[in-house]
Design goal:
Structural class: alpha/beta
Number of helices: 7
Strand content: 25-35%
Order of helices and strands: EEEHEHEHEHEEEEHHEH
Helix content: 25-40%
Radius of gyration: 17 Å
Shape: globular
Number of strands: 11
Distance between the termini: 29 Å
Largest sheet: 7 strands, mixed
Length: about 230
């Protein structure tokens, strides 16, 4: 079985809005619904678990009242960090060790069905896979206010989501994790186990909605692809 965990329990402090960014409208529809639709449409996904805050659960019930997701099997309450939210979802799963779990940011609504499928397939093959994109800017290393070096960007990739893992691998990674540590993605924890993670080339359009100006870009991209 292939299970998608959609993490959408954040408050979106940097977004500067009156509501969490996952419920902000994108072309007339909440961002979280755009994201869920991508996973609902993906034939490689068998089940979806959505992670929300208590207040987010109430808001989701309102915005999804006229929408049905056949694959949405469970809504889980998130924790006080992204990592805690994913851990809560993992603990709520009735999964087998070789099931594949794909973790995705709820505010990445432009992920494609193809990206989801290829990441899951690679994780099925290797045990762990991360969707990535090229780094196009020149990256400088700094010390205070001074540049001290240039990083070879051709050796770098931006980590996107979904990131997919065999259930036993991801469970082991979280069991060994210190959730008080700053953890920005699941790959970080799996890396700490000493495991190799395969990369899957993704699309730079798979952006994360972080600030208000990202809405303008996301709407332009959605219009361009006809959604």
């Amino acid at each position: 079985m292939n299970i998608a965990i959609i993490v959408a329990a954040g408050t979106g402090i940097r977004f500067s809005a009156s509501q969490p960014k996952q419920f902000t409208h994108l072309l007339g529809k909440p961002i979280i619904l755009h994201t869920l639709e991508r996973f609902e449409e993906c034939p490689s996904v068998d089940a979806i678990v959505l992670v929300l805050s208590d207040g987010g659960r109430e808001e989701f019930e309102k915005v999804s009242a006229h929408t049905h997701f056949d694959k949405l099997v469970k809504i889980v309450t998130g924790g006080n960090s992204r990592a805690a939210s994913v851990r809560n979802a993992l603990e709520a799963l009735n999964a087998s060790p070789d099931d594949i779990v794909a973790v995705h940011d709820g505010v990445r609504p432009l992920v494609t069905v193809d990206e989801i499928s290829r990441t899951i397939e690679k994780a099925r093959e290797t045990g762990a896979a991360c969707l990535v994109a090229d780094v196009t800017d020149t990256i400088k290393e700094v010390d205070g206010a001074h540049i001290v070096g240039t990083v070879d960007r051709f050796l770098l990739r931006r980590a996107l989501t979904p990131q997919a893992f065999r259930f036993d691998i991801l469970s082991e990674a979280f069991a060994a994790a210190d959730l008080d540590e700053k953890i920005t993605d699941e790959c970080y924890l799996v890396e700490k186990l000493g495991m190799e993670i395969a990369t899957v080339e993704g699309n730079a359009q798979n952006i994360k909605i972080t600030r208000r100006e990202d809405i303008v870009l996301a709407e332009a991209l959605l219009k361009d692809i006809g959604n």
